[in-house]
Amino acid sequence: MPACLTAASLATDAQGLSRANIRIEGGKIAAISPSGEATPDGLKVVDADGGLVLPMLVDMHTHLDKGYIWKRAPNPDGTFTGALEATTTDRTARWNAEDVRRRMDFGLRSAYAHGTALIRTHLDSIPPQDEISWPVFQETREEWRGRIELQAVALFGIEAVFEGTFLDRIAKRVKQAGGTLGAVTYMIDALDAALDKVFRTASRHGLDLDFHVDETLDPQAASLSLIAQKALDHRFEGRIVCGHCCSLSAQTPGEVDRTLDLVARAGIGIVSLPMCNLYLQDRLQGRTPRRRGVTLLHEMKARGIPVSVASDNTRDPFYAYGDLDMLEVFAQATRILHLDHPVDDWIRTVTATPADLLGRSVFGRIDVGQHADILVLRTRDWNELLARPSGDRIVLRGGRKIDRKLPDYRELDDLMGSE
Predict the structure, then answer these.
(1) Which InterPro entries match (predicted)?
(2) How far apart are CA 209 and CA 183, in angstroms?
């Protein structure tokens, strides 16, 4: 098991892994001891044969309301603009309560089978969609209580904050649902004033913030630095997460340093969405992409900025693939972002760090007294896991093995037909 994910005192090898015995009693972890110690008489022993043991995983940036619409709303050219247009058309025509509920549930059953226990989803919240998706989310959260803990973020383009009473109305809806306020930020002329409105509104309602930020390779896109400065100016006391932040990879070293210094001072957490951004960014028909479209996790981590990776979109116009499998996300992130040589404690990006950023530090760790919600993998070290992330795994919830059967895509066929 990764030494960085437990408080137990264990010897650690060169990969940061510890060999241990985990005793489970009454559905909880009763003890963690060094491997090789004698087992008390009468206890049932299961030999994992040196397989990796991980805590249940955390997916802190998803879009459960968009998921699985690819068959009826494909992205014609794979671009960000194409994704926006296809999603807007589909949402307007089809996103009723039954449609959203069934696709959300399908995604959650997939994530549960793969071993995820905590998910934050962004919900498209431009009226009238907010009146459909937020009640469905709240109902779904109750239905999934005890299996996957769910959080939600209101999602809308930043310019919407100037539309009458929209922002205050959405904030009240989010507050009532126990959610988080968010927005998509880009370089509009009135961005400074728009962010002031968002920060004031979040403070007034006691809400945390989670932004989509600079999802472009345009080096002029610099809303991350402005968000960080606003957090400092407003002395904002809530949590702030910024996702994507792709344009940093196209900016000068000096601009990067200035921005990351502000982000560190403001205490902002960053989540990178490597699979989706690799899919969308630097895409031109007939030309091989040159740039990866991901943000600067190594430089952020070196400054003490908390960093995570997450699934983002799943089989929708923004990302045609994916299955809400955080082991796939971790493996792909390692390859795309070079989170290796050494792997070190990068496993925290899908476990303890996102749990902390979501205010749920009970997740993403293996410690005595916690529920025995763990993954037992057949792979024995980081190299085996990263080479075969889809390999055999056992998911234990409360110490009991769950049925890992994945839902069949055919279940959604009746939602995919033409209008």
Answers:
(1) Amidohydro_3, Metal-dep_hydrolase_composite, Metal_Hydrolase, Metallo-hydrolase_Enzymes
(2) 8
Catalytic one of 139, 215, 237, 384: 215
Fold of 57-357: TIM Barrel (3.20.20)
CA angle 294, 297, 299 (to 5 degrees): 125
Both structure tokens of 172:
């009240």
Contact 66, 318 (CB under 8 A): yes
Would you identify the CATH topology of the domain 3-55+366-401?
Answer: Urease, subunit C; domain 1 (2.30.40)
Let me know if 215 is a catalytic residue.
yes
- The radius of gyration computed from the CA coordinates of the chain, to the nearest angstrom, equals 21
Q: Where are the domains of the chain?
A: 3-55+366-401, 57-357
Q: Kindly state the tokens that stand for 332.
A: 């792909």
pTM, rounded to two decimals: 0.96
Per-residue model confidence as pLDDT tens digits over 218-272: 999 999 999 999 999 999 999 999 999 999 999 999 999 999 999 999 999 999 9
Residue of 376, 375, 373 lying closest to 397 (CA atoms): 373
Q: Tens digits of per-residue pLDDT, 95-142?
A: 999 999 999 999 999 999 999 999 999 999 999 999 999 999 999 999
- Which tokens is 55 given? 């805590």
Helix locations, 155-234, DSSP H = 166-176, 191-205, 223-233
Token readout for 200 is 């004031």
135's CB contacts (< 8 A; 6+ apart) are 97
Residues with Cβ within 8 Å of 115's Cβ and at least 6 positions away in sequence, in order, are 54, 56, 57, 326, 327, 375, 393, 395
| CA end-to-end span of the chain | 51
Residue among 272, 136, 269 nearest 209 (CA): 269
